[in-house]
Amino acid sequence: MRHTLIRTLYLLGGFIFVLLGIIGLLLPLIPTTPFLLLAAFCFSRSSERLHQYLLNQPMFGHFIRDWEEHGVIPFKAKLFSTAMMLTMISYPLIFLPFHPGLKALAATTVVFALWYVWSRPSEQSSAKPTLDNPLAKADD
Known about the structure:
The chain is mostly helical. The protein has helices spanning 2-26, 33-44, 48-55, 61-70, 75-95, 100-119.
């Protein structure tokens, strides 16, 4: 019973994240990729058929596979996300009269997000440990 409830919640979460990702395709200020990554995570725990459907999408499936298999964020995606984050945070920080604590919280959140994005590899490392070569050293 508990397993069925958890699986159902993951399935529901997957659909919600896909919907948010679709909204992100239509509205330029809402990100698409993080929602699709979350949807893939949820579907991997609830529906292998839907998980495979996302992985095999021609437009974004390879991004999800690269993330799941290697933790890769492509360099162009890093540049785009950096530009979008800095653009979206600049106007409120500079021109809107928010409490300084809220501005500091928003700036800290963006700095942390940028640190996370840029700390991920941009491409698959050829020297990652595998079943065939478990002692290989990753290039970091």
